[in-house]
């Protein structure tokens, strides 16, 4: 083949990679939007379908349990079936489930559709990230691709608040489900025609059924335990029972994985220092982020009286800052600095942003208090997320890319569940204590009682945000001490023959100078 023809083929391959990124990112945006867009529509859906207050949480919980519990299984299926096939199946199923949810005529139909969304989301999320990991192997291209993907993964939730408010207010709650259908159809068609999965990257080993059962039940128990803690309390028998069950199941899962020939989650994926440190620090960072996200939403709507649309617009500066941090700071510096030199300062900057938000009072101004905190939070998280998501899948054998990607999503999902339950409980307790201590000062005056109610809520929010500051600081410390990967001066490419189950990572990896690509 002539040199000109070789360059033409190389250029066509590069174009296809960037086209593939568009459709992978679109699918990721759909999944992330869905995590918050339905929350905005929930009151309207509850009223329309006659869902009781006791059961309304299941609109959120049904999705969270299916998604969180099946992520590892979804990642393993991606490695077994092929990421492209799993990606398209996930998109198709997610679109159908969303259509059913939008057309729901009763509570059972809506809850079933949410569980189905979670199931197909568990196929879609790890296959999207693993496709990105095996498609972009050149260090500079990988940095740009993960910068875009990280911006969507971190900032999409805030966009969901805005889009959910617009759709609910100007159309109706059903469109928060229907909007997923065109997203999914476009992404699935684009993936089918554009994405070319590298040959020889599947893991065709038999499925580890005991591992699937133990991991799914263990993760469902863990996520549901935190959900129950939020509603029933941490000392409730059901909460304690779920946590004990989760502990027993996940320990049993680890023991099984260390003994079976073809494990669902090869321990080499999580035991490697950099990946393990990344999963842990990312999970902790998400705890703080979800907590602050939750309390600022409450603060703006309940205390300040913002509408859903206005609240969504209030979060947009954070989204912009997240995109800047991910694409202009993280992606530009990740090939020049070690990952921890971005992750640790990024999480530390997020802690500083949360520290600023502890100054919230009933009448705090948006430009003076909230805006600086949101901008710093976006910059810090964006700068840290990009190298974290890249490092979590970097150097892993292609046959393990699906489960490695699933672990990223699992750490985020479990972190989100912990953040919502733990920090909500902390806030509620602080609010109750403040009310009891100051009740006598508001006796007899309706205006004084309303003011006290608002003050107690804000006290609870800021008390919980202090916890988020500490958690974010720990995430920064873990990134600094655990993650020791050097600056990526080489491109890591895995051999196509690495389809066995017993070979070591080093045997299946070839390191080539970036200049050779």
From TrEMBL:
Transmembrane segments: 20-42, 57-75, 87-105, 117-136, 148-167, 173-195, 207-226, 232-256, 277-300, 306-325, 337-357, 369-389, 464-483
Xref: PANTHER family: BLR6921 PROTEIN, MAJOR FACILITATOR SUPERFAMILY MULTIDRUG TRANSPORTER MFSC
Membrane-topology descriptor: Multi-pass membrane protein
Principal location class: membrane
Protein's name in the database: MFS transporter
Annotated stretches, region: Disordered: 493-517
Keywords: Antibiotic resistance, Cell membrane, Membrane, Transmembrane, Transmembrane helix, Transport
KW Cell membrane (keyword) present: yes
Xref: InterPro entries: EmrB-like, MFS, MFS_dom, MFS_trans_sf, Sugar_transporter_CS
Top-level division of the source organism's lineage: Bacteria
Gene3D superfamilies for the chain: MFS general substrate transporter like domains (1.20.1250.20), Multidrug resistance protein D (1.20.1720.10)
Residue ranges annotated for the Major facilitator superfamily (MFS) profile domain, each copy included: 20-487
Intracellular or extracellular location(s): Cell membrane
SUPFAM superfamilies for the chain: MFS general substrate transporter (SSF103473)
